[in-house]
Amino acid sequence: MVFRSIVSQLAKPNEKFMYGAVREGGRARDFEEAIEWLVSAGMLNRVYNVSKMEHPLAAFDKPDQFKLFLFDTGLLKHMAGIDNSAILLKADYQFKGPLTENYCLQQLRGQFEIEPRYFSDKNKEIDFALQYGTEIIPVEVKGGEDKSAPSFKKYLAERQPEHAVRFSKRNYRKDGAITNFPLYLVRKTRELL
C-alpha cells in the first residue's frame, strides 16, 4: 500500500508523506515497518524535513515529517502513467514538478556525504538542502517554465548563503549566489560548486 501510494503522495501540493493518504485513518504505527523495509531495500528514498537549515543538518531532522521518492525516475514516470510525448514535447502536465524533483534527488544522492534534506515551515519551502562540509546549500528545482520561487528568494534574502542552486531547463548561469544548473548537469553538482 505504501509503495503504490507514492505517486498520489507526490502529486499533493504539500508532498509530505501522509499516513492517512495510504488508508483512511492510517497512523505511523500502521506503516512505519513497511516504510523502513522499503527504504532499507533501496526501493524508496526518504528525505527528512529539517527544523533549521544549519550545520549539521541531521541534528535538525524532524523524524515524523518526510517525503518519499522512488529509487528510479523511470519507474515513477511509468507508475504515474506519463506518456513519453508529454516529456519530449515539453507539454505542461500536473506531475512535472514531482517527477523533476525525483530525478534531481536520484542524481544528488551519493554526491555528498550527508543525504539531502528539505525545509518547510508555515512561510516557506526549500526543495532540498545540501550539506557540503559545514556549508548548507539551498536547492530549488524547476520542472516547468515558471521561474518564480518566492520561498527560495525569501530564504536567500534573509540568510544570504555563499552558494544557492537552481536546477531547471535553463542553461548554466551564475546570478550572484545562485548558480543555475541545467537538469542534465545535476549529477555534476558537487564538481561544479
Order of secondary-structure elements: HHHEEHHHEEEHEEEH
Amino-to-carboxy terminus distance? 39 Å
Radius of gyration: 16 Å
| Oligomeric status | single chain
Describe the strand arrangement of the main beta sheet, using strand numbers: 2-1-3-4-5-6-8-7
Q: Shape, please?
A: globular
Which whole number gives the mean pLDDT? 93
Strand content: 25-35%
The largest sheet is: 8 strands, mixed
Question: Approximately how much helix is present in the residues?
Answer: 25-40%
Low-confidence stretches: none
Q: How many individual β-strands?
A: 8
Walk me through what this model shows.
The model has no long low-confidence stretch (mean pLDDT 93). This protein is of the alpha/beta class and 193 residues long. The protein is globular. Strand 7 and strand 8 form a beta hairpin. It starts with 5 loop residues before the first helix and ends with a helix. Strands 2-1-3-4-5-6-8-7 form an eight-stranded mixed sheet. The chain has eight helices and eight strands.
Give the SSE layout.
Layout: H1 6-11, H2 19-22, H3 28-40, E1 44-50, E2 61-70, H4 73-80, H5 84-88, H6 96-108, E3 117-120, E4 125-132, E5 135-141, H7 150-159, E6 164-168, E7 173-175, E8 178-182, H8 189-192
Give the key terms.
193 residues, 8 helices, single chain
Task: Characterize this entry briefly.
The chain is 33% helix and 25% strand.
